[in-house]
Amino acid sequence: MEIRDIKQQLTINEVLQHYGLQPDKNHRLLCPFHPDKTPSLQIYPKTNTFCCFSSNCTAGTGDVIQFIQLKENCSKHEALVKATALAGDNAVIASPPPPASKLLLNKVKSRKVGKRITWIKLQYCQKFLVTIRAAFHPLKKQ
Ligand SMILES: [Zn+2]
């Protein structure tokens, strides 16, 4: 999964939820990256980004990957792995359990193969008939 895909599939709210963080109706919450008394972490669901307005905070602005990186205190690579897992969980929930279209495709495929076999058999029978006819034909030249 590419970073772009992860960012498309994983919303900032899902990341917050994963960490048990709940923004208020103004999309603000107590910043988990510095001792915060008034909600100074602003969430932007439209752009999937966050921004801490406190001057005492080093979080600044960032996206879902950076949020995970800050929260886990890990490398960007580890944050990406974590984000992929989170995005993957969402994908599993979002997709329907049995891939109906694939089953249908397999059915069509096997039907096509069946037709092809019948056709080959027919060709073989015809060839066989011609050979037999030729062998037993009274006017066949020796
Ligand atoms: Zn902060």
Automatic annotation (TrEMBL):
Biological process per Gene Ontology, one example term: DNA replication, synthesis of primer
Coiled-coil region: none
GO molecular function, one term: DNA binding
Pfam families the record matches: Zn_ribbon_DnaG (PF01807)
Organism in which the protein naturally occurs: Niastella populi
Protein name in the entry: Zinc finger CHC2-type domain-containing protein
Superkingdom field: Bacteria
Keyword set includes Ribonucleoprotein: no
Sorted UniProt keywords: Metal-binding, Zinc, Zinc-finger
Annotated ranges, domain Zinc finger CHC2-type: 27-84
GO cellular component: cytoplasm
Keyword Ribosomal protein appears in the UniProt entry: no
